[in-house]
User: What shape does this take?
Amino acid sequence: RGILTKIMCTPYTRNEPWQLRATLFKGTIYIEEHVSPEKRKDAGGSNERHKLMSYWGYRFETIFIEEVDLNDPELTGRIDGVVDTNLQYCTVARTKLGRNSIIMGAEVDCISEPKKPPPHNPLTNYIELKTSRVISNPRERNSFERHKLLKFWAQSFLPGIPTIIVGFRDDDGNVVTVETFKTMEIPRLVRGKEGAWDTTICINFLDGVFNFLRKIIVVDDPEVTYTIRWDAPFKAIEVEFDGKKNKFLTEQFLSRWNRGGSRENSKTDT
Assistant: This one.
């Protein structure tokens, strides 16, 4: 999902570089993000303040629940407990965009009610949790809607998560207000405003990139990779043939496929 969000938001985040790796195997294009050592360092926080703000986000996710049973030590322990940033729950979603069938993984923050057994689809109850600095004037509101709401919408729209809950915090990390957004209603909130983004442009751009990649990535070999790059001067997406290096499909995955663990008569997916 993170990869697709980066591509989808590119028309409005043109100065934000990204780099991906891709390989074609059995008619399906697999894509992973390439994280450089510099970017990996930045992801950890370029300074102590950024690290602290990242922690606040994890903390909000850890303790955000609608009701706390004061007799339940597991729940009350979250209030004073250590935040474990390694815990996550991921879902696998499949969707279609134009001629492209897309399968993606997405982390899910929480669910509005206990998960029911199949065939019930829990997707409609999934919730995305976010934090943002409290909005104190119209300029900050405009910036929030132009930039953060775009990415919030894209992240939840792609896998079909219907609800986003945002905790607005002060400069000390205290959540002072909480607001709920419906994913499908967010575009209406920004429509017609100064610098507003357009969902049609985002979706069509993502579809266009996929169609472009299908024409370029043609060597069907799990050992062959391509580099897909959006970088300065930010004029065009570049695709470089890397040959048999930077392989990222694991032997475990390939062996399972070869044992018949894959679907038969595979059609081209992205």
